[in-house]
Write a structure and sequence with these properties.
The protein has 78 residues and is mainly α. The chain has a domain of 32 residues. It is 56% helix and 0% strand. It contains 3 helices and no strands. It is globular.
Amino acid sequence: MDCTLLLVYLVGWFISVMVIRHRAGLGWQGNKLVGDGGLGIEWVARTAIAAMFWPITLILWIARGRPAPPVVFTRRGG
């Protein structure tokens, strides 16, 4: 039972990171984190925290009526 819960949590964590990246317009390829044309440490930190607590993030997102992401990257430089 413990292994199953851990596996579900880890799979949810991975999926949440992919969904957050996709909703932000980043796609599936790697991106520069900091520096010129980078994502920025604030965005990376917020994404990491939201992914770690993905069950809470999912519940809040549904309760708020599935709002659009706060940051959408339309063009990637670098």
